[in-house]
Specification:
The chain is an all-alpha fold. It contains 12 helices and no strands.
């Protein structure tokens, strides 16, 4: 009982504790949403971890001084680039599944390790910061690309607004749009959906792109909001934990907000 009490206090017992919990919950919300949209259509994307790093790598390439823009333009551009990179990482698994019937669980899972090796190569070689004293990390993001803090002297950043907005938008899309109906039909019975005129390959394409984009946005939020630069230990397994977040919420976009905060609270409270 004392241990559980200490976990609760460590996660929610002060302004600092709450800020740490919500900061940890941001990438879990986005990777949870990535898993939820894919699983709803029976496209079992286990590769959110790799897509997370694709987004992080893209934001590092664009945000380290390649383009000089004001913050109001730079931050949306970084999210767009990171989301696009995450989406592109799912093109090969989608193609193999729809054209050759290759199990996407295997391809997305194994692609995680390929992407991590590519990131490691970039950090050890062409993208290593010459000022890092030999440590494998990239140059820092320019100030215009850093997400503003929501509470002074804490690590909670504006990526929380992005995650909450994405959850709300995804809920509205799944509930009130034709695309949402197609995703639901594919998830309930893909063969019946095909007979009803829903193109499975095209529907799964957009599901895969959306799933990868959400996971890539999680990588952007961690680099631009929390750390400021890319390292190989940026994620302690956000992509895999996002699956637990989605399943705990029964794949409901709004429920994912609560389940992400819950699991983040357990992690932060246990650390405390």
């Amino acid at each position: 009982i004392d241990a559980f009490k200490m976990i609760g206090i460590g996660a929610f017992g002060s302004t600092f504790a709450i800020s740490e919990t919500f900061s940890r919950a941001i990438p879990l919300m986005l990777t949870g949403l990535a898993a939820a949209i894919a699983f709803r259509a029976q496209f079992y994307n286990i590769g959110a971890e790799g897509q997370f790093y694709c987004g992080a790598l893209a934001v590092t390439v664009v945000g380290t001084g390649v383009i000089d823009l004001p913050a109001a333009v730079m931050i949306p551009l970084l999210f767009a680039c990171g989301s696009l990179a995450g989406a592109l990482a799912l093109l090969l698994p989608w193609y193999l599944k729809t054209r050759l019937s290759v199990d996407e669980v295997v391809t997305t899972l194994l692609l995680n390790f390929v992407i991590l090796l590519l990131v490691s190569f970039a950090l050890e070689g062409p993208m290593r910061d010459p000022m890092s004293m030999g440590w494998p990390q990239t140059a820092p993001i320019v100030d215009e690309g850093i997400l503003p803090a929501l509470i002074p002297r804490t690590r909670l950043h504006a990526g929380l607004y992005v995650a909450l907005a994405m959850a709300a938008v995804l809920w509205l899309v799944l509930r009130y749009t034709v695309f949402g109906f197609k995703v639901k039909a594919m998830g309930l019975n893909a063969q019946a959906a095909r007979h009803a005129g829903i193109p499975p390959a095209k529907t799964l394409f957009w599901v895969a792109m959306l799933s990868g984009a959400l996971a890539g946005a999680a990588g952007v939020s961690e680099v631009a909001g929390l750390k400021g630069y890319l390292t190989l230990d940026l994620s302690p397994g956000f992509g895999y934990t996002g699956i637990a977040v989605a399943m705990l919420a029964n794949l409901h976009p709004l429920g994912i907000i609560l389940s992400a905060i819950f699991l983040a609270g357990i992690s932060v409270g246990a650390d405390s």
